[in-house]
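Notes from the 1:1 (GR / supervisor)

We went over the backlog. Supervisor wanted to see one worked example end to end before approving the batch request, so GR pasted a single chain during the call. The sequence is below; no edits were made to it. Supervisor asked that the structure be written out right there so they could see what the output format looks like.
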Amino acid sequence: MHTPLCDLLGCEVPILLAGMGEVSRWELAAAVANAGGYAALGMVREDPDLIAREVAALRKATDRPFAVNLIPAATETGLLDRQIGRCLDLGVTDFSFFWDVMPGVVRRVKSAGCKVLHQVGSMEAARVAEAAGADVLIAQGVEAGGHVHGRVGTFVLLEQVLGAALVPVVATGGIASGAGRAAALAMGAQGIQCGTALLATTESFAHDYHKRDRRRAAGLTAHS
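Structure output shown during the call:
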C-alpha cells in the first residue's frame, strides 16, 4: 500500500483521517496516526486556545506527523488569522483546507514552510488550489458526508483531477472498504481519505447517540 504520498506526509499507509469538525479531535487523530495513517485535527472555527490544547495533547499521544484542518472561506477573517498564527507559533507543519480556495491563505502557510492539503469538489477548485501551491489535492465526491462540495461521483471527479494535476491526488467520499481503496489506487490516486467510516469509533469525539445511529446504519455491534 506504500505510495509516494506516504513519503511526502510521513505515514506508513496512504489512508487519511478527514478533519471532521467536533469529531476528529486528538484521540481519534492519535489512533489513526499510531496505526500508520495520516491524521487531521478538525479545528474548523475553533478558538485558538482549543487548537493549542488539542495540538499539545496529540503530540503527547503520538510522534507521527499530522495536519490541522481549517475552512478558511467559512471562518471569520480575524478568527482565521488568529488560528493560523497560533498554529504557526506552535510549529504546526501541515494544514488541510477545504471549501472555496483562498490562494492568499495557502501562500501564507506555504511561505512559512508548511505543507498544504486542499480538499476540492470540482476541477476548477483543483486548478486554483494547485496554482496557489497546494502539495496534495483531495478530490471529494458527492458521496461524502459532512460538508460536501462535490457535485459528481468520487471516481468521476478523481479521474478528472488525475488527468490534470501535477501533485499527488487523494480520493474521498463513500470509500470505506479495502475494495474502494484498491479501486482508487488502481485509478492512480495515491491515497484515500475516510471520515464517516471512522465516526463511530471509540476514539471519535462524536456524541454517543450519533455513534449508535452510525453503528446501526452499518450493521455493527456496540463494541465495533
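Supervisor's comment: Residues 141 and 157 are 6 Å apart (CA to CA).
Batch request approved.
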